[in-house]
Amino acid sequence: MAALDLRAELDSLVLQLLGDLEELEGKRTVLNARVEEGWLSLAKARYAMGAKSVGPLQYASHMEPQVCLHASEAQEGLQKFKVVRAGVHAPEEVGPREAGLRRRKGPTKTPEPESSEAPQDPLNWFGILVPHSLRQAQASFRDGVLEAKKRKCFLERVIQCVVSPAAEQEAEDESCLEDWAAAVPAETSAKAI
Amino acid sequence: MAGRGKLIAVIGDEDTVTGFLLGGIGELNKNRHPNFLVVEKDTTINEIEDTFRSLGSLPGRVVEANPNQRDPPLWDEIDSRQFLNRDDIGIILINQYIAEMVRHALDAHQQSIPAVLEIPSKEHPYDAAKDSILRRARGMFTAEDLR
């Protein structure tokens, strides 16, 4: 009876695995499409700005992530991930605002220049006025990041499906092996007598 | 770090890394430890493997020239660069052709976090037959693919 229950559970896990694999394949297709759109837009931007104008030479010396993953425990021990994007930039005030404050109220504690809550937009690495194709590339890769997160959730379920049935089968095999190993000496001693 | 959430790391060619950094996943902190690696023509397989290994918290198998000679600051530097050793990375995006170079390291990574997602590159389209996870899933039904 226990064996039948185990087989039924394995069957349901296999069906779940196949369903998750199908969803994973769909998400993968979308992710690949977004990434390919991004490459095309990057190529257009490179054509407009110059071959060396879009590349690692333009990376900032200090980067803060605009996208983070927040994990929470979901059902069946799975991790649930949520993509959190950094806050929207507050419009920068241009002008000697701090100097004015200082004149009115005397020396005040100047705010730290790196304490801004919203990280810098990576588009600014490539200049002030960037071509539209570069913005399109950024949008494509941002969508790609979201798809990667969705794909990751399915991937985790697939991994759990792949690992847990194999582990259960191994445990069942080991218990059968132990029973057989315990039975063999008893038979041997019985035959010797 | 725990309150901020986990990062998305990327190991890929120039366009892939530039694109995802444009998407806002890049981090380069004051200690100069990035969560990305641009793989170029002169990037060695050891460097890729070294950067990738710690992301999955594999036991220390860092490739070194002289295992008897440990330089603590250098080891700290290597450990910090290795993605699998960092507990603040949730997903690793890697071009599939680069994943093929370090396939043994990927196959040894059994944990779900950080998850390794293989993505295509411009010159190498995605091949589901080479994906580690899908191969393992297929291995449940085909003995020759089972590892």
TrEMBL record, chain A:
Region span, Disordered: 94-122
GO biological process: vacuolar proton-transporting V-type ATPase complex assembly
Protein name: Vacuolar ATPase assembly protein VMA22
Pfam families according to UniProt: Vma22_CCDC115
Automatic annotation (TrEMBL), chain B:
Protein's recorded name: V-type proton ATPase subunit F
Entry keyword annotation includes Oxidoreductase: no
Function: Subunit of the V1 complex of vacuolar(H+)-ATPase (V-ATPase), a multisubunit enzyme composed of a peripheral complex (V1) that hydrolyzes ATP and a membrane integral complex (V0) that translocates protons. V-ATPase is responsible for acidifying and maintaining the pH of intracellular compartments.
GO cellular component: proton-transporting V-type ATPase, V1 domain
GO molecular function, one term: proton-transporting ATPase activity, rotational mechanism
Species in which this protein is naturally found: Pan troglodytes (Chimpanzee)
Subunit structure: V-ATPase is a heteromultimeric enzyme made up of two complexes: the ATP-hydrolytic V1 complex and the proton translocation V0 complex.
Coiled coil spans: none
InterPro entries in UniProt: ATPase_V1-cplx_f_g_su, ATPase_V1-cplx_fsu_euk, ATPase_V1_fsu_sf
Keywords: Hydrogen ion transport, Ion transport, Transport
Family membership noted in the UniProt record: Belongs to the V-ATPase F subunit family.
Origin: domain of life: Eukaryota
Keyword Ubl conjugation: no
A family per Pfam: ATP-synt_F
